[in-house]
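Our consortium's second objective concerns turning raw sequence data into structural hypotheses that experimental partners can test. To show how far this objective has progressed, the report includes one record in full. It was chosen at random from the queue rather than selected for favorable results. The single chain below, 181 residues long, was entered without modification.
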Amino acid sequence: MKEYFQGDEFKDISKNGKDRKWKERKINNLNLAKIFDSLDYPDSFIFNIKSCAEYLNFKRSSDGSLRLFQMYTCKNKQCAICSWRRSMKYQVQISKIVEEAMIRKPKGRFLFLTLTVENVSGEGLNNELSLLSEAFNRLMKYKKVSKNILGFLRATEVTRNESMDTYHPHIHVLLFISPTY
């Protein structure tokens, strides 16, 4: 088992043997700081992003593997490190919710729904996201839908088409429906 010291290049390997790519995420994080700097954001804001995940404290677990114990983050939504950690946290929370839903309603079924629109320019993105949210809310109010939905998890995602400089907003929904649907 390798021990790490200050200045060593860190390799974090998951239980299934996959590299967690801290270095690539940190490089993306530093590039983000440069972008905010070019947009004349305050120095304290940029420093916060640059110093994200500079300090990592690991503890050895009973099986001998290292587990992240402490880390200082910037909590910026655009930060590659923070968004990665947030997605892992959400993944654990969602799995607990799904398990509990199956315990409470064992005959319920899951459906995955993606609601999408055509790509829009940056100027029209905010308006399109509002329209998409309104459409989702209308869908959930339909009688046939509302009477069969036991619950749902919703996530809004926006991807960017760099070659055309457009954005693609869409909503991912995990629907928990009654077995009679």
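The partners drew two points from this record. The CA atoms of residues 150 and 177 lie 5 Å apart. The longest strand covers residues 149-161. Both points have been shared with the crystallography group to help prioritize constructs.
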